[in-house]
Automatic annotation (TrEMBL):
<dbReference type="InterPro" id="IPR050109">
    <property type="entry name" value="HTH-type_TetR-like_transc_reg"/>
</dbReference>
<feature type="domain" description="HTH tetR-type">
    <location>
        <begin position="19"/>
        <end position="79"/>
    </location>
</feature>
<dbReference type="GO" id="GO:0003700">
    <property type="term" value="F:DNA-binding transcription factor activity"/>
</dbReference>
<dbReference type="InterPro" id="IPR009057">
    <property type="entry name" value="Homeodomain-like_sf"/>
</dbReference>
<dbReference type="Pfam" id="PF17920">
    <property type="entry name" value="TetR_C_16"/>
</dbReference>
<dbReference type="GO" id="GO:0000976">
    <property type="term" value="F:transcription cis-regulatory region binding"/>
</dbReference>
<dbReference type="InterPro" id="IPR041678">
    <property type="entry name" value="TetR_C_16"/>
</dbReference>
<protein>
    <submittedName>
        <fullName>TetR family transcriptional regulator</fullName>
    </submittedName>
</protein>
<dbReference type="Pfam" id="PF00440">
    <property type="entry name" value="TetR_N"/>
</dbReference>
<keyword id="KW-0238">DNA-binding</keyword>
<feature type="DNA-binding region" description="H-T-H motif">
    <location>
        <begin position="42"/>
        <end position="61"/>
    </location>
</feature>
<dbReference type="InterPro" id="IPR001647">
    <property type="entry name" value="HTH_TetR"/>
</dbReference>
<dbReference type="InterPro" id="IPR036271">
    <property type="entry name" value="Tet_transcr_reg_TetR-rel_C_sf"/>
</dbReference>
């Protein structure tokens, strides 16, 4: 018989420090969403883990959806990806994605969102669209309008597929690759999506601002 799903014991209450509280809430939210998924994680459980009050979570983030979006590593790290111009965009995306996902050992908030999709399609879809809008704001600084419309959606779909195969079902060729192999092959795939021939009669996609020569 499965053990009951009980809340973990609350850690000691933290001192009054808004920035410390915010970081503690984000850390607790990442853990809770990764373990329970978006639908089953609760703000009260997150507050318990962070050692703050339920009201403190709401004051900092306003809603469960806003907290989830703030806790998703990909949306937090996207600005750093845009600012780093030492290598081509495809390599930056692949390196950042693989590093984040491998460090999380499959317990990533985005993985939790994919797992939640079957149980709560409406919430998962709304969150996915919100995440996409947030990252699109940064990509607008890196890609032209043609790339944003015709290529970026396929970049997002590729990363969703890789996430599902390697970190959700954990089966198949992608799951068997080393992190180094995954980074190299993902870079090549992203490069083809971002800078390959359009095949539509439109002008070939140019390199985004801040991109390298590769």
């Amino acid at each position: 018989m499965a053990a009951p799903d009980t809340d973990p014991p609350a850690p000691p209450r933290r001192t009054r420090n808004p920035e410390l509280h915010r970081r503690a809430i984000l850390e607790a939210a990442s853990q809770a969403f990764a373990e329970r998924g978006y639908h089953r994680a609760t703000l009260r459980d997150i507050a318990r883990r962070a050692g703050v009050t339920h009201g403190s979570v709401l004051r900092h983030f306003g809603s469960k959806e806003s907290l989830f979006l703030a806790a998703v590593p990909g949306t937090r790290d996207i600005d750093a990806l845009a600012e780093d111009t030492r290598e081509p965009l495809a390599a930056r995306i692949a390196r950042g994605y693989v590093h984040r996902m491998e460090s999380a050992d499959g317990n990533d908030t985005f993985v939790a969102l994919l797992r939640s999709a079957a149980d709560d399609t409406g919430s998962a879809a709304a969150l996915y669209v919100a995440m996409q809008e947030r990252t699109d704001e940064v990509y607008r600084r890196l890609l032209d309008e043609h790339d944003l419309r015709h290529r970026l959606p396929f970049v997002a779909a590729l990363l969703v597929g890789v996430t599902f195969s390697r970190y959700v079902v954990r089966a198949g060729a992608l799951a068997e690759m080393s992190a180094e192999e995954l980074t190299a092959d993902l870079t090549a795939s992203l490069e083809a999506l971002l800078h390959g021939s359009s095949g539509t009669g439109d002008a070939p996609a140019g390199q985004g601002a801040g991109d390298g020569d590769g």
